[in-house]
Amino acid sequence: MTTEDRPRGGPPIAAIAASLQHQRRRAGLSLAEAARRAGIAKSTLSQLESGTGNPSVETLWALSVALDVPFAQLVDPPPPRVQVIRAGEGPTFAAEHSSYVATLLASCPPHARRDIYVVSAQTGSDRESEPHMPGVVEHVVLSTGRAMVGITDDPVELHPGDYVSYPGDVPHVFRALEPGTVAVLLSEHS
To answer: Residue 82's pLDDT is what?
Structure first.
């Protein structure tokens, strides 16, 4: 898939559809069972697999956990040898219940175990994440603004240039404290 195959900055719907079908079949799950494990409607998964849905980041994370694959493996086709992602481009995923947008910058290549995102968040709505797969560790470097980031029960206030790492396999939060807060997030899979 090329950038021409998807709306600028939008999720790569065709890649997500193909990946969901492949990963669900690889796991030996029916459409109904995969949807049940992810806590979503069977019709939602059917739409996503047919390329007609518009998935939220929560839905895709739930599916990645249910299918036991890294999030980025569901959403990003293999990159070319040289890849440039300009500001405002790349596959983006908005949260359902908060003003939080994650743009995948680099997915984990085969036999490596990390994904890199740029996160944009606004004040007034926290991004509360359910636990990811066991062993996931998230690393965040704040670029602009201020944010409370980390384990839900004990987040840390970050300022530009600050770094925090925390287990991603427990509930965690990203709370923007200033409008236009931006961070780089690296998700490490063990």
So the answer is: 58
Between strands 100-106 and 114-121, the pairing is: antiparallel
The string of pLDDT tens digits covering residues 10-52 is 567 888 888 898 889 889 999 999 999 999 999 999 999 998 8
Q: What pLDDT, in 10s, does the model give residues 127-142?
A: 999 998 888 889 999 9
Task: Kindly list the strands in the beta sheet with 181-188, ordered across the sheet, starting from the edge strand earlier in the chain.
Answer: 92-94, 100-106, 114-121, 181-188, 137-144, 163-167
Cα 157-160-162 angle, rounded to 5 deg = 60
Helix (H) or strand (E) holding 167: strand 163-167
Distance CA 50, CA 127 (A): 28
88: left (phi over 0), alpha (psi -120 to 50) or beta: left
Q: Is 36 in contact with 69 (CB distance < 8 Å)?
A: no
Cα(25)–Cα(34) distance, integer angstroms: 10
| pLDDT score of 4 more than 50 | no
Residue 113 token pair: 């175990």
Q: How far apart are CA 14 and CA 91, in angstroms?
A: 12
Q: Provide the angle, in degrees to the nearest 10, between the axes of the packed helices 57-67 and 42-49.
A: 90
Entry pTM? 0.58
Assign 155 a pLDDT band (cuts: 50, 70, 90).
very high
